[in-house]
Design brief:
Elements (H helix, E strand, L loop, with lengths): L1 H23 L34 E10 L8 E2 L4 E7 L1 E6 L6 E4 L3 E4 L5 E4 L6 E10 L6 E2 L6
Antiparallel strand pairs: 1-8, 2-9, 3-6, 3-8, 4-5, 4-7
């Protein structure tokens, strides 16, 4: 009789051990990229702090690829939301109202321009400059607001 009572206890202990071992075994991992293919469009490093505030209002996110031919420029303008740019080729000069000297940014740089800041971007280099730009805009607002030349 003692033998019979011991068998169920041993079987129960073995079953519990197997369950615990199975729970501790590593699960099949999700592939690093999941089930999608990703293509990086641009990457840049900003040297200034960036803050984004939408106050809970509906927001439109716009991403554009820009190409500036040698000698080309954007003209003076602003945006109703912040602009984040990654320079993917060439060098661009960014001028902002009040500090009319242009700051040059080359491939791999990121540029942040707060909402409402009047600025222009030019390419003084010999090759086409390309930039991937992202705007966070109030829903329904235009991406660009033209401005007069503030450094004339």
């Amino acid at each position: 009789m003692m033998h019979r009572r011991g068998v169920p206890l041993v079987v129960a202990s073995a079953a519990a051990g197997l369950l615990l071992w199975g729970a501790a075994a590593p699960a099949a991992a999700t592939p690093p990229e999941g089930e999608v293919e990703r293509t990086d469009l641009a990457e840049g490093t900003a040297t200034t702090p960036i803050h984004i505030v939408t106050d809970g209002a509906p927001t439109t996110l716009t991403v554009q690829s820009l190409a500036l031919r040698p000698g080309g420029g954007s003209g003076w303008h602003s945006h109703p939301g912040p602009e984040y740019s990654a320079i993917t080729a060439g060098t661009v000069a960014v001028q902002t109202a009040g500090g009319c000297a242009g700051a040059e940014h080359g491939q791999g740089a990121a540029v942040f321009i707060p909402a409402g800041v009047v600025h222009r971007v030019t390419n003084a280099g010999p090759d086409t400059a390309t930039v991937v730009v992202t705007y966070t805009l109030p829903a329904g607002a235009p991406a660009r607001i033209d401005a007069p030349d503030v450094c004339a």
